[in-house]
Amino acid sequence: MALLEVSGLTIQFGGLRAVDDVTFHVDEGEIFAIIGPNGAGKTTVFNMLTGIYKPTAGEIKFQGRLINNMKAYEVTRLGVARTFQNIRLFGEMQVWENVVVGAHTRLRSGLFASVFKPPGTRREERAAREKAYEHLAFVGLQGWETQRARNLPYGAQRRLELARALAAEPKLILLDEPAAGMNAQETAELLELIRKLKERGITVILIEHDMKLVMGISERIVVLDHGRKIAEGTPEEVRRNEAVITAYLGAGANVGH
Amino acid sequence: MPVLDLVNEALREWINPYYYGIFLVMGINMILAMSLNLVTGFTGQLHLGHAGFMAIGAYTAGILATKGGAAFLPAVLAGGVAAAFFGFVVGLPTLRLRGDYLAIATLGFGEIVRIAILNLDITGGAFGLRGIPRLTNLPIVIIAVLLTYVILHSLIRSRVGRAFIAIREDEVAASAMGIETTRMKVTAFVLAAFFAGVAGGLYAFWFRFISPGSFGFLLSIEILSMVVLGGLGNLLGSVLGAGFITYLPELLRTSVPAVAQHRMVFYGALLVLAMIVRPNGLLGTSSEQGWLEMWLARRKAKHAARGPARLEAAAPGQDGADGRSGE
Questions:
Q1: A52–B174: do the CB atoms touch at under 8 Å?
Q2: What angle, 0 to 180 degrees and rounded to 10, lies between the N-to-C axes of helices B316-326 and B291-311?
Q3: Is A50 in CB contact (< 8 Å) with chain B?
């Protein structure tokens, strides 16, 4: 069954159609990838899926429910979590606090409870912190819990973003270039983590530049170029696709790096 | 209340009236600084109209006491509630703005309050509001400061408080975590307005006379200075900053005549000096270095590099090159 259905997704920024009539679906439990050259509109698609941008046209359905016009926090509440391409942690907060903020929609205490801390709230806080430590252990960050997030090394910051997204207990997790800037070993560990997410029953959509990496893990891939979908299919199908090859070589020649 | 009166009597015996007054104003400023810190330091929203909320609290309490015969506590609390109400009304549209725009909007709000008070009949206009009974005393202010501290301290270590800080750190990421950023910012703003209103009520019941001139833009800036000097996002820092900025002019006034005569020059210079030495505030904990610290570190590094270089200064031409590459 399709967990996420995207049809005719379009967004216009002034005269620029950053994403133009893109249609795809993601099945439950799948590892799905969106690839394409720089500026293809991949992150823009993520921003629309998570309610940060409102699409100009088209539909986004999550579990059969239309989420086009929902705000970011409403989408998160439904079970969609994400990481960011340019790491966006809460730098001055401790590592475990970052993860507990990720669980914001799963915790109940309101303003009154936050000030007066009745026993229920204290229990919730303790449980949330324990859960945060578990998520941190899952991504391999045990021992870092009380460090400030900004003091973590780069690779660890990327993993913290993942732990923070997991804390929202998502059904669908969107990873925006999770391997960017990682070395070969870190990338291998990350792939292992993504597979473990699938074992947990979480559906994964990832954006990646690195074709080699994507081919190894994704079950299906959609390829964007200049905001349009130019191909879709299994890694094997995409690899052989003429339009994809042209897009990558063409973009490389035009941009010059 | 009788216990408080007794404590107050004892304090009046013990502290001379001059210092009694300074401590009391210090306490009011601490409440103002802590509440502003909630908005600016913890939630990261630059707010330049805090004096406006204080004015609303002061006038509400003052009018209720003089024209309605209200008792002290209900009048002060009503001042807080009135300020909170205006905080909500003003916060809802303005907190969608960011950075500079929010600063301008809140600055405008503070001025609107002052000018409205100046032109209303019920407030006494430019003549001010007089005849408010003196019901604020030092023990009451101390209790108010402690309550403010305890409440805000507990709040920032909670789900809601973490949401505030997350918004300061990265608003886009915060909303992606499911935080309703506008609602949270308005919450912080309303709470801060409430405490500022209470501080205004305490102020009115102490000075017995309030006028629009007491709550101008400069007061908002002074409160902000207390917060920044103490350390943005540090509650105890605001207490310290408020104490420091309240007492400093008095200290200079009573010092040697040469300093006393030019006390505002020294006041400004000392604030500048304090911010150079502690760029993140007296109790600031940010890991960023100020330029003084960086300069000192660089000097130290240069000295360390030059030491051994001098010993090997057999070839003078090479020395200069080494020194440069060492930097």
A1: no
A2: 150
A3: yes
CATH of the domain at B57: 1.10.3470
Give the confidence band of B326 by pLDDT, cuts at 50, 70, 90: very low
All residues of chain A having their beta carbon less than 8 Å from the beta carbon of residue B172 are 52, 84, 88
The shortest C-alpha distance from A85 to chain B (Å) reads 11
> Do B318 and B203 lie in a common domain?
no
pLDDT, tens digit, for every residue of A74-87?
Answer: 999 999 999 999 99
Q: pLDDT tens digit string along B214-254?
A: 999 999 999 999 999 999 999 999 999 999 999 999 899 88
Range A235-255 average pLDDT: 75
* Residue-range definition of the domain harbouring residue B163: 13-277
Q: In Å, how far from its chain's centre is CA A72? A: 13
Using the beta-carbon criterion (under 8 Å), do A90 and B165 form an inter-chain contact? yes
Quick one: B40 and B154 in the same domain? yes
- Residue ranges of domains in chain A, CATH in brackets: 1-79+171-257 (3.40.50.300), 89-169 (no CATH)
Which chain B residues are Cβ-neighbours of A72 within 8 angstroms?
175-176, 178
Q: Minimal Cα–Cα distance from A43 to chain B, Å? A: 14
pLDDT at position B301 is 75
CB proximity B151 to A under 8 Å: yes
Chain A residues inside the 8 Å CB shell of B286: 92
Answer whether residue B304 is part of any domain: yes
Sign for the CA dihedral angle at A142, A144, A150, A151 comes to negative
Q: Are B184 and A110 in contact (CB under 8 A)?
A: no
- Give the whole-angstrom CA distance, residue A59 versus residue A57: 7
For residues B171 and B319, state if they share a domain.
Answer: no
Contact state of B175 with A92 under an 8 Å Cβ cutoff: no
Mean pLDDT of B155-174: 96
Give the residue-averaged pLDDT of B265-290: 78
Closest in A52, A100, A104 to B178, CB measured: A104
Global confidence as pTM:
0.88
Q: Is the pLDDT of residue B49 over 90?
A: yes
The count of domains in chain B is 2
Interface contact B160-A111, CB threshold 8 A:
yes
Distance from chain centroid for Cα A117: 33
Q: Does A86 touch chain B (CB under 8 A)?
A: no
A60: Cβ–Cβ under 8 A, 6 or more apart, which residues?
Answer: A4, A5, A6, A9, A48, A49, A66, A67, A68
Q: What length does chain B have?
A: 327
Q: Give domain status of residue B73, yes or no.
A: yes
